[in-house]
Amino acid sequence: MSNQNDGVSSGSDVFKLVGFSNFVRSNPRSDLFPVRRFHHVEFWCTDATNVSGRFSWGLGMPVVAKSDLSTGNATHATYLCRSGDLCFLFTAPYSPSIASSDGLGPSSMASLPSFSYSACVAFAAKHGLAVRALAIEVEDADAAFRTSVAHGARPVSPPVVLDGRAAIAEVHLYGDVVLRYVSYKTPASDRDNSSPDSWFLPRFQPTDEASSFPLDFGIRRLDHAVGNVHELGPAVSYVKQFTGLHEFAEFTKDDVGTDESGLNSVVLGNNDETVLLPLNEPVLGTKRRSPIQTYLEHNEGPGVHHLALMSEDIFRTLKEMRKRSGVGGFQLMPPPPPPPPPTYYRNLRGRAGDVLTEEQMKECEELGIMVDRDDEGTLLQIFTKPVGDRPTLFIEIVQRVGCMLTDDVGKLYQKGGCGGFGKGNFSELFKSIEEYERTLESPA
């Protein structure tokens, strides 16, 4: 059955979850086109200067590049925050009267060819601060776009070559979120790593902030990006159909819910399992409204639920974030109040005693870090409160331990999704969210 709010159709396949315990993980290497990595995440907002500054300060991501009036772009202001391989773009519109003749559609001055004043303004009014684009680097953006559309993807922005050096295209993902394809005309070894015009996208110029006010909390890349939809089956079928991504994991309310609310979830991954796109749906008819349903109502439809950022040292990252929580940064979600005795952290040694030192386990309790593991590795994770006014988008900080492999040239790398997705922590997270949402409820 299809759901018009998700903007997808279910096709002919019957979708049925088997649950975490019965799910057999396999990798059919079924990508329809080569997918390399997450490239960037773009937020549409109404004030890119201040929003990018807050994320820079709160996450240790310097604003390293810009495309705005000072670079000749009178259509939109866009600022790029970067930490390691993690790139966040923040885009806001200028007055349409100075951008183009009709003030509504794309302009030749825009650095992002799919930008539209009217679409951006409507998006920000509808969703608040939210993610517009999840961008992945592919071998050939034109081929990825054509293949996707041929397999049922809804086209949003056809391929455009920027200054003869990079190509960009977009298809619909879910809600008002697009999946953006980025590819380069030259190999990475031939691109100038000192210029964002070369290593990121053409028409972006460097800022002075990275050198004049360096920030680095240890965040290195985007681990996964989670979407919320009304109905899981049609959304999963749609994305799998036009990308070839395979199911990496799945969870049901019986796996991860609480006595009061829950969700169903499927994680999709590419061949290398470096691009992971979980999708959630709410479980209806529970004692409390599912936090996923709360999101869908406040976001006015499907969208990006949270972004999981990989840290090379989660303890350092969180200590730096906590310093700034009350002065323009992000507030961390406290762990749920445990029933006496505090069994979660008392039992931590059994879950991770062979991986974490005694000092690290004490730090986990002090910082509210949750720890889980699968048969391959260990996952450390913590969540922020929503980043904006609405109880919608939030940030997850993760560190994965284990699953080290060697590539063809002898370089060590970590297998994607090492340690799983916190099945043992989901219920604890839901308790935290339920407690947080109680603080938002009006007194009786």
Automatic annotation (TrEMBL):
<feature type="binding site">
    <location>
        <position position="306"/>
    </location>
    <ligand>
        <name>Fe cation</name>
    </ligand>
</feature>
<dbReference type="InterPro" id="IPR041736">
    <property type="entry name" value="4OHPhenylPyrv_dOase_N"/>
</dbReference>
<keyword id="KW-0828">Tyrosine catabolism</keyword>
<feature type="binding site">
    <location>
        <position position="396"/>
    </location>
    <ligand>
        <name>Fe cation</name>
    </ligand>
</feature>
<comment type="similarity">
    <text>Belongs to the 4HPPD family.</text>
</comment>
<feature type="domain" description="VOC">
    <location>
        <begin position="221"/>
        <end position="385"/>
    </location>
</feature>
<dbReference type="GO" id="GO:0003868">
    <property type="term" value="F:4-hydroxyphenylpyruvate dioxygenase activity"/>
</dbReference>
<dbReference type="GO" id="GO:0006572">
    <property type="term" value="P:L-tyrosine catabolic process"/>
</dbReference>
<comment type="pathway">
    <text>Amino-acid degradation; L-phenylalanine degradation; acetoacetate and fumarate from L-phenylalanine: step 3/6.</text>
</comment>
<keyword id="KW-0479">Metal-binding</keyword>
<dbReference type="InterPro" id="IPR029068">
    <property type="entry name" value="Glyas_Bleomycin-R_OHBP_Dase"/>
</dbReference>
<dbReference type="InterPro" id="IPR005956">
    <property type="entry name" value="4OHPhenylPyrv_dOase"/>
</dbReference>
<keyword id="KW-0408">Iron</keyword>
<dbReference type="GO" id="GO:0006559">
    <property type="term" value="P:L-phenylalanine catabolic process"/>
</dbReference>
<dbReference type="GO" id="GO:0046872">
    <property type="term" value="F:metal ion binding"/>
</dbReference>
<keyword id="KW-0585">Phenylalanine catabolism</keyword>
<dbReference type="InterPro" id="IPR037523">
    <property type="entry name" value="VOC_core"/>
</dbReference>
<keyword id="KW-0677">Repeat</keyword>
<protein>
    <recommendedName>
        <fullName>4-hydroxyphenylpyruvate dioxygenase</fullName>
    </recommendedName>
</protein>
<dbReference type="GO" id="GO:0005737">
    <property type="term" value="C:cytoplasm"/>
</dbReference>
<dbReference type="InterPro" id="IPR041735">
    <property type="entry name" value="4OHPhenylPyrv_dOase_C"/>
</dbReference>
<feature type="binding site">
    <location>
        <position position="224"/>
    </location>
    <ligand>
        <name>Fe cation</name>
    </ligand>
</feature>
<feature type="domain" description="VOC">
    <location>
        <begin position="37"/>
        <end position="206"/>
    </location>
</feature>
